Task: structure prediction
Amino acid sequence: MMDLYYGADYYPEHWPENRWEVDAELMENCKINIVRVGEFAWAKLEPAEGEYNFDWLDKAIDILSKHDINVVIGTPTAAPPKWLVDKHPEILMRDEKGHPRGFGTRRHYCYNSPVYQKYTKEIVKKMAEHFKGQSSIVAWQIDNEFGCHDTTRCYCENCLQKFRKWLKEKYGDIDELNKAWGTIFWSQIYRSFEEIILPAYTVCDSQDHSNPHNPGLMLDFYRFSSDSVVKYQKLQIDEIKKYSLVPITHNLMGHFDQIDYFDLSKDLDFVSWDNYPNNQWNKASYQLTAMAHDLMRGIKNKNFWVMEEQSGPCGWSVMGDTPKPGQIRLWAYQAIAHGAEAILYFRWRACTFGTEEYWYGILDHDGIPRRRYYEVQQVGRELSKLSDLILDSRVVAQIAIVKSYDNLWSHELQPHNSNFDYNGLIAQYYKGLIANNVSVDMISEECSFDKYKVVFMPAFNLMTDEIQSKVEEYVKNGGVLVITFRSGTRNWDNSITTKTLPGYFKKISGIEVEEFDSLNQGRKVIINGIDSECSASIWCDILKTSEAETLATYGSDYYKGKSAITVNNFGKGRVYYIGCDLDNEFMKKLLYIIISDAGIRTNIPKSVKGVETVLKKKDTERYLMILNHNSYPVNINVGGKYKELITGDIIDGSVYLLPFGVAILRD
Ligand code: GAL
Result:
């Protein structure tokens, strides 16, 4: 059986050649068997147009392979070199005001630039040709973090032309477009596709919380921009595939919201992503990290890699917290619990120059192994014994949450209430579910719902007749569907439905939204039900129940006593409608009622704060991963006798976990 890939992101070009051997040896000593290289090295691989120099990389790869270290090779297109930008400044991306986004950092290119596409093809072809015989190269990474630094949407002349073409292919006839966007509003009728604009800087731009452009145009522009990235990536994939059969990936960014990751990943052999739980800009809760892992697994319904995993304090100008003893190990196991089959730490060694001088890796600037290195070594040793259990294992999930990028963009453009956030709502449901010790698949509306006992479609506002039929079939056949306020209120083109709300979901939910109330300036409305009380602070749908049963009512304001949460039997299944936002405790309790009613068992008898459990399956064998995200030890009642697979200990009734500790239990 092959070992699981375990490694680091390595930049040999940042260090003198006589250090490479030392690095490879240190890597081997902590069981590192893979590194990623090359993804920003264009200027060194092609120092001047048409002059290629791959010798240094060949040499580094040779040294690594002598130590049994494999390689993921990155195409270097995220950093176009100076000679190229000087010769062709037209490749630069442009912002909403038409300003070029210049040389000096990275990602300064437009996906739709024919010139940039030509140079991209050339460098990718040269690399694919050159490295095709190198057996230690086990994967390709295309570019680096598409869309990072707000680089998905460009407003240049190329994009304008391509947008018009994209719209022509979509609508065929300009009248269809006018109808879909409702351009009669404010005299925006277009007479031909050649008249279409990009939603660039215009009047009203400064008004708080509003994007003044036509919502149909905006959503199509977001879709077009995402599609442009998908196409640009495909161009590189096609080039590599001419020479190599090695699997191809791209490093995604978890909750990043500008690219439809379901679309982007269709052309990839596997998904990988970059996980930084705690850096200069962001301190993610363990639940948000878990959800990102689950989304990355859901994108292709397949296990994934972590291509960059945090291994030190990190930031550009200031640093986030240093990972505490045990946290690097815990993060690796958390990734594995949710479906990671490879972990590469970013980065092997902190760099002494450049924008990321403060982004620490496994080694500090001086290159001397210390605590973080030894923790990575410990994980390496442990994982090498667990490979068989981890590779091709599956997360056992009977619940799915549907995430839609089209819906996300629609909500971002017009969030209904200034405190509403679609991703935030999904995350709240996700957190409530995993707090009940069950696992969740994050899926798209295109996936089959059949294998799930419960499917959540929070605030799924954009709808089509097809999706409506699909959910009706699912519920009719016994599925449980959970929808919320704002579900079913719009058509797929982002116009508002004339159907009585909840629009496309009215029939199956057995209710009517009589009125709604968007809560502003800190207003709160009491919710009573399921033997609890909480308050809504964003939104209240005031429900009239035709067939549904009421589970909670409003306890204040002029709609006191009216229904807030309902459940309706439809065919063999049920539909829950949650008409308001809830606090976390109420949510957790409500979700427990919903899942236990659907016959779903929780992983452990009683949840413990800060402790996550993931049930996994490998062939016919099941095992439970328990992760303590607390900085203090915990004792967990697991209700049975198990073998702990890292230590080999026998566990009877309860398991003791150290701060940031991990256990893997098998019956
Ligand atoms: C990632 C990126 C890496 C590096 C790292 C630290 O987003 O892929 O190249 O920049 O962040 O900033």
Notes: The pocket of beta-D-galactopyranose is lined by residues 144-145, 148, 251, 274, 308, 346, 356, 359 (CB under 6 Å). The mean pLDDT is 97. The longest strand covers residues 634-644. The first helix runs from residue 17 to 29.
